Amino acid sequence: METTSSQNSPASAQELVTRLMDRGYSALTISDLMGHRVSWRTIYRWAKGESTPHQPSDLAELRRVAEALTEPKPTE
What is the mean pLDDT of each run of 10 residues along the chain (76 residues)? Predict the structure, then answer.
């Protein structure tokens, strides 16, 4: 299981987006998977640390997407 620098604090938007981009997902794809709640440009800004989510629900949705894409798929 991947952890952040602080065991008790959840990953930041920058960490989550960077993790997804390292796995090959583009800012556009991440935006698509988030239901276009934010633009791909905003995802890119989060990755660069130029901004952070303004709405807690945007960060929650990003976490949901990141968990869905980084968790191992259950075997049948």
Answer: 46 95 96 96 96 95 93 65
pTM for the predicted model, two decimal places: 0.79
Distance CA 28, CA 38 (A): 10
The SS3 call for residue 73 is coil
**Residue ranges per domain, the chain?**
13-69
Cβ–Cβ < 8 Å for 31, 58: no
Give me the long-range contacts of 62-70 (CB less than 8 A, separation at least 24).
62/13, 62/16, 62/17, 62/30, 62/34, 63/10, 63/11, 63/16, 65/20, 65/30, 65/33, 65/34, 66/11, 66/16, 66/19, 66/20, 69/20, 69/23, 69/25, 69/33, 70/2, 70/19, 70/20, 70/23
